[in-house]
Design brief:
- It is a single chain.
- This protein has four helices and no strands.
- With 74 residues, it is an all-alpha fold.
- The chain has one domain.
């Protein structure tokens, strides 16, 4: 394992989660640089969209998901 990665693993769980979110946000900010979806990924997205269209009330907001995740580490 590289030295910098070993240092990252020394961060608290909350700090590692925040780092992961920050890294993801930096990737999402440049969608044109993302690799193309596979057919399996595209099919899964379509399946989930159809499921949501059938029952939108089953969805959980990102705020709720994030709250649940943070409650596990904090």
């Amino acid at each position: 394992m590289s030295d910098w990665l070993a240092e990252l693993f020394k961060l608290s769980p909350a700090d590692r989660i925040q780092l992961a979110e920050d890294l993801w946000d930096s990737v999402a900010a440049q969608p044109d640089n993302l690799p193309p979806l596979t057919e399996a990924q595209r099919a899964e997205i379509e399946r989930r969209l159809a499921e949501h269209a059938r029952d939108p009330s089953a969805a959980i907001s990102w705020e709720e998901v994030r709250k649940r995740l943070w409650s596990r580490v904090g």
